Automatic annotation (TrEMBL):
The keyword tRNA-binding does not apply. It holds the Pfam family HTH_1. It comes from Brumicola blandensis. Belongs to the LysR transcriptional regulatory family. Residues 9-65 form the HTH lysR-type domain. Keywords: DNA-binding, Transcription, Transcription regulation. The lineage of its organism: Bacteria, Pseudomonadati, Pseudomonadota, Gammaproteobacteria, Alteromonadales. One of its GO terms (molecular function) is transcription cis-regulatory region binding. This is LysR family transcriptional regulator.
Length: 309
């Protein structure tokens, strides 16, 4: 079993990272500029070093094991942190080439994702030899990745008390939402009602919450949502709501983008448990905001604001 990383282990991990990212040996060949037998030998050697089976390969195609998934996620963190270190080191010499990592909250609106692509294009056009790694994280992970050094910038809503260790750059955009249910849910018939009947309480209906969301969102005056289970993203929350077994808080953009396919119903004209979460570009206080990152932040703020007009 591996006790200490050697330079050769880093090279083997880079091979595995490429294979896992490309979801297969063949797809990773042009990325690694290696032939399949050499890739296979490297993966086998890494498995021997780690004393773990990382993936299955054969007629059924490439498939990572549970252990392989863990190693892949940890490898991603290592390489992100290393790329960030190299980029920050270069910037001390006024060399702004290299990779920057931008993390997006999972489940952002399509219009916001398109705005991100425009901001990234503008940044890459202004600074030569800059490449941007765009990744996603679950809502309850965004604060951690901003602080950990895994990335340079994070784009996410945030509704908790803001920690002093994170810098928040407002985009001027708020993500509004409310309580939704499926068309088959008993509360769907109260779509146009001003309020639920006096003999009916929202607490009597199971609700799904989202990990990391402030509990304040589940309280509306004397009404409280009866949270029975949790999701880790709005997409998954929508899937649970569509079973017809739960009500749940969802951003309006999800209902708008998925409305035709899902028929999501806002309960009581959407007046129940309304929320408005501000969208921020975030970075850890230890992140050195050089001209590249400052330009990227400015462009993100501009294009996201424009996308909502």
């Amino acid at each position: 079993m591996l006790n200490r990383l050697q330079e050769s282990d880093i090279k083997l991990l880079r091979v595995f990272y490429a294979v896992a990212s490309c979801n297969g040996f063949t797809a990773a060949e042009p990325v690694l500029r290696m032939q399949r037998p050499n890739i296979s030998a490297a993966i086998k050697k890494l498995e021997e070093r780690l004393d773990l089976v990382l993936c299955h390969r054969g007629r059924g195609g490439f498939q990572m094991t549970k252990e392989g998934e863990v190693v892949f996620q940890e490898t991603k963190r290592i390489f992100n942190a290393f790329d960030n270190f190299v980029f920050n080191l270069k910037s001390l010499h006024d060399d702004y080439s290299g990779h920057i990592t931008l993390v997006l909250m999972a489940g952002l609106a399509t219009s916001m994702q398109l705005a991100v692509s425009k901001a990234v294009k503008s940044t890459m056009k202004k600074f030569d030899d800059i490449h941007v790694n765009i990744q996603t994280r679950l809502y309850n992970e965004v604060e951690h990745v901003a602080l950990s050094g895994e990335c340079h910038l994070v784009l996410s809503t945030y509704d908790m008390v803001k920690p002093e260790s994170v810098t928040f750059h407002p985009t001027g955009v708020h993500c509004k939402g409310r309580l939704y249910c499926a068309p088959t849910h008993p509360l769907a018939k109260y779509r146009e009602a001003d309020a639920l009947p006096d003999n009916m309480r929202i607490e009597d209906f199971p609700a799904i919450g989202m990990s990391g969301l402030s509990s304040v969102n589940y309280i509306n005056g004397e009404n409280r949502l009866a949270i029975q289970t949790f999701s880790d993203s709005y997409d998954v929350c929508m899937a649970a709501v569509m079973t017809g077994e739960y009500v749940g808080l969802l951003p309006d953009y999800i209902a708008k983008e998925q409305g035709a396919a899902t028929g999501l119903v806002p309960i009581c004209k959407g007046s129940l448990f309304e929320f408005s979460h501000e969208l921020f570009v975030m970075n850890g206080k230890n992140t050195r905001l050089n001209p590249v990152l400052r330009h990227c932040i400015k462009e993100l703020e501009y294009f996201i604001s424009e996308s909502q007009k």
